[in-house]
Amino acid sequence: MATYLEFIQQNEERDGVRFSWNVWPSSRLEATRMVVPLACLLTPLKERPDLPPVQYEPVLCSRPTCKAVLNPLCQVDYRAKLWACNFCFQRNQFPPAYGGISEVNQPAELMPQFSTIEYVIQEDDLQALKESLQMSLSLLPPDALVGLITFGRMVQVHELSCEGISKSYVFRGTKDLTAKQIQDMLGLTKPAMPMQQARPAQPQEHPFASSRFLQPVHKIDMNLTDLLGELQRDPWPVTQGKRPLRSTGVALSIAVGLLEGTFPNTGARIMLFTGGPPTQGPGMVVGDELKIPIRSWHDIEKDNARFMKKATKHYEMLANRTAANGHCIDIYACALDQTGLLEMKCCANLTGGYMVMGDSFNTSLFKQTFQRIFTKDFNGDFRMAFGATLDVKTSRELKIAGAIGPCVSLNVKGPCVSENELGVGGTSQWKICGLDPTSTLGIYFEVVNQHNTPIPQGGRGAIQFVTHYQHSSTQRRIRVTTIARNWADVQSQLRHIEAAFDQEAAAVLMARLGVFRAESEEGPDVLRWLDRQLIRLCQKFGQYNKEDPTSFRLSDSFSLYPQFMFHLRRSPFLQVFNNSPDESSYYRHHFARQDLTQSLIMIQPILYSYSFHGPPEPVLLDSSSILADRILLMDTFFQIVIYLGETIAQWRKAGYQDMPEYENFKHLLQAPLDDAQEILQARFPMPRYINTEHGGSQARFLLSKVNPSQTHNNLYAWGQETGAPILTDDVSLQVFMDHLKKLAVSSAC
Amino acid sequence: MAELYVKPGNKERGWNDPPQFSYGLQTQAGGPRRSLLTKRVAAPQDGSPRETSPGPPPMGPPPPSSKAPRSPPVGSGPASGVEPTSFPVESEAVMEDVLRPLEQALEDCRGHTRKQVCDDISRRLALLQEQWAGGKLSIPVKKRMALLVQELSSHRWDAADDIHRSLMVDHVTEVSQWMVGVKRLIAEKRSLFSEEAANEEKSAATAEKNHTIPGFQQAS
Is 70 exceeded by the pLDDT of residue B205? Predict the structure, then answer.
């Protein structure tokens, strides 16, 4: 700089600051003698069209009396990831997100030209959620009733009037209330009119105060669109090092109470949208100190999850009440960290509501999954149905042991009900408050015929399933299915029974039993149980010579079953330590309600191979299927992975697909993309999509499925202490099969 | 009519975010599907050692297409792609052609609809105009609004409703502030139309009863 004039001008342009003195007198006495005080003019919002705001929050000095912001004057130790505050000299640790910084890779706030810098507090997630909710108003039928509750530190129940002034009732987020208290406070305790089951409640037939909070879409859509558009982040400031206060437990309680008091026994959904864990009040899952992380599986194992039991109890009570009222609860949780799905899962699982888990509301995964809730069938009706009761009747040789799925027991005793429970037992009727055409229950039976009672020739057992439900058109319907199957004497007709075995259904039903057990038993015990059942099955139905494993054979109808069990043991449903408790809850939630085909995909992912050698073909889910000249498509239900073998990747890099004489290569590359698209277009929830190649970092998704992971070996190193026959938790399907055969043919078992 | 496209997911918020399908593609998904990928292969029973590939193949080029390399593709020139973007080039939708019929529809509804609702709709139409004139709306949005207005003018209420839904799903950020007004306008116009039709039937029925010449009794 030639003169100070330039210096002054540059600084004003960059920082919006002009000082009276640009070199400062170094003592107090001298400064007073300068006559003009040391002062500056500051324009804090000076226009800087060349300064885009950075999309993260400022890093502050940790000294509570300082809290200065990281700036170019700070000394930085890039190796130790420390910085020294230039105001108070405190040494501070960089937050984890700054792990990658170095002398050549500096964050903007450390560079001298960024002496002035602007930070943006992230709002795009809330904006994305608001837009999704506004969009959903267009997808709802016009006479559906809707209401809105928002929550943070407080809980607000919004009054939906058409008059232009928005009002709301505010509740403290710390105190739980009974249903009656909620109804009193909202002014809902006028005598209720008897509900008519056949039609949806028209507001004008029920002129009591509930209409203030629940209004039909066609009347309220414009106001509600505006109300949603005006929603802001909770105004209560969140200090650094703390989590925002989130009163999810009370908010949900109020929603349940509101619907309980206004529309019991009518189809309804409570949709909970949350961007983080409950941190306040009943149902809180973690405290507001950021440095205390939310519970992991290790914490739970060591009994170190202090909020878990109480929170789970709170949500279980709410879930049971909701199911009793015939309503369902959906949970849409989008955040980078856990949100408490472990504690809240019963809300979705007992009521038949949905659980959607994503990283952010601003992702296509959330937006499209949410849109698909409102999918219509070929008749133009919504696929969702409400208020189902399933009643099962059996002929007298059979009894009902229980059901596993998104249901609650109705506690209906009777001659069909077995004393031995599997799943949710002790009843012949269950309630499923929310369901759709893929909802599937596993129902378990017990044969009670005495061993030597002769069965009449050609005798058949029968089961009848009667499902009452409310169709989305509000019509009540009853679906009746009656089935019969032949009885057979096992001694003389084993081959017959063998041939009629459905190994796919069997695998899913056993898997549901295993996962059901895993909710209350220790992981290793469940694996031991699963192994024991598999060995016994092989002993019974395998063909072999005693003590000769090489002679072991299974007939075609059993050939895939051991493989299913092998992959089930390694699946996220039973191996929890690779995932967070929330992730495990999410996977188990979807597993417990999908139909057979989707459930099997979850147990043993599908792997298809694409090559020049012929049409796409299924291949073994094993590392031997990964070949250089193949493209693999793997579907785990939760992820779709496309993997290019090494040679294919090299050809793509060389651009052969753009040359007309290699058009077949272009088709080859496109084929798995088209098949993936078909799956992506229809599946609920939307899966994640990974397109990778040999050597790519995301190839690990494929590799971890075809090869056993290292961790589960160590953690489940339960051994031979019990003396029970145990399958080795070993490296490959081949070794697993060898061990299984050894145990099956051994007379020691 | 509805656009069929796929765009990539939000890579900033999720590196494995799946692609986003347009409303048109999603509603079409209920149609007949190719056979799903659901087959599996049994593990070999006799424990024979797995064939290992004999090392990486030599890196030559891929096998060439069996088609003669020089034969031109059947049909017209460059548009051999898969995307249905081969619509004839249209002139961009004109704002007046969209707003005038909407405002007219609103006027028609004034007698039949509450004042507050009309004011609300009017406010949103003004917002639509402001955004259109200010160049804030993308071409697909303008195009679909033109189609919506056509359907509305031809009394095809369901089609108009479907277009409004497709705009809300595919372009919510651009349209959410005013689209709900258009949605309400379609609903009000539909109910007004069916009311008028019902009245006409009633008066025609009374006319017949009175044995008068039908033509003279028609209200204009």
Answer: yes
Q: Categorize the per-residue pLDDT at B72 as very low, low, confident or very high, splitting at 50, 70 and 90.
A: very low
pLDDT for the residue A539: 93
What pLDDT score does A652 carry?
94
SS3 state of residue A137: helix
Q: Is the pLDDT of residue A255 over 90?
A: yes
Report the predicted TM-score, pTM, of the whole model to 2 decimal places. Answer: 0.82
Shortest alpha-carbon distance between residue A527 and chain B (Å): 21
In angstroms, how far is the first alpha carbon of chain A from the final one? 90
Put simply, the chain A residues between 375 and 414 with a CB less than 8 A from any chain B CB are 375-378
What's the gap in Å between the CA of B38 and the closest CA on chain A? 7
Q: Who among B18, B66, B183 is closest to A221 (CB)? A: B183
SS (H, E, C) chain B: CCCCCEECCCCCCCCCCCCEECHHHHHHCCCCCCCCCCCCCCCCCCCCCCCCCCCCCCCCCCCCCCCCCCCCCCCCCCCCCCCCCCCCCCCCCCHHHHHHHHHHHHHHHCCCCCHHHHHHHHHHHHHHHHHHHCCCCCHHHHHHHHHHHHHHHCCCHHHHHHHHHHHHHHCHHHHHHHHHHHHHHHHHHHHHHHHHHHHHHHHHHHHHHCCCCHHHHCCC
In chain B, residues with a C-beta closer than 8 Å to the C-beta of A737 are 43, 47
Of A50-64, A276-290, A721-735, the poorest mean pLDDT is in A721-735
| Residue of chain B with shortest Cα separation from A640 | B18
List, in order of start, the domains of chain A with CATH numbers: 4-56+113-119+381-489 (2.60.40.1670), 132-188+210-373 (3.40.50.410), 572-737 (3.40.20.10)
ipTM surpasses 0.85 = no
Residue of A122, A123, A222 to mutate, testing the B interface (most B Cβ within 10 Å of its Cβ): A222
The candidate with the shortest Cα–Cα distance to A392, out of A359, A375, A372, A415, is A415
A472/A90 Cα distance (integer angstroms): 63
A647 vs B36, B37, B59: nearest CB: B59
Q: Is A735 exposed, middle or buried (0-12, 13-18, 19+ CB in 10 A)?
A: middle
What's the gap in Å between the CA of A371 and the closest CA on chain B?
A: 8
Tokens of A164: 């232009």
pLDDT at residue A234, rounded to an integer: 85
Chain B contact for A363, CB < 8 A? Answer: yes
Beta carbons of B181 and A222 less than 8 Å apart: yes
Q: Where does residue B70 rank: exposed (0-12), middle (13-18), buried (19+ CB within 10 A)?
A: exposed
Whether the pLDDT of residue A736 is over 70: the answer is: yes
Give A686's contacts in chain B (Cβ within 8 Å): 18
Angle at which helices B172-209 and B115-133 cross, to 10°: 140
Lowest model confidence (mean pLDDT) among A214-228, A475-489, B49-63: B49-63
Place of tokens 């029920």: A206
Q: Which of A224-228, A403-407, B26-30 has the lowest mean pLDDT?
A: B26-30
A669 to chain B: nearest residue by CA? Answer: B62
CA distance A440 to chain B (A): 18
Residue A642 makes CB contacts below 8 A (sequence gap 6+) with A631, A632, A633, A634, A672, A673, A676, A690, A691, A692
B2-38: b (≥16 Cβ within 10 Å) or e: bbebbeebbeebbebbbbbbbbbbbbeeeeeeeeebe
**Cβ-contact A59, A106 below 8 angstroms:** no
Q: Is B177 on the interface with A (CB under 8 A)?
A: yes
Looking at residue B219, its pLDDT comes to: 47
Query: Do A221 and B51 count as a contact with CB atoms less than 8 A apart?
Result: no
* Statement: residue A710 has pLDDT above 50: no
Contact A679/B169, CB-based, under 8 Å? no
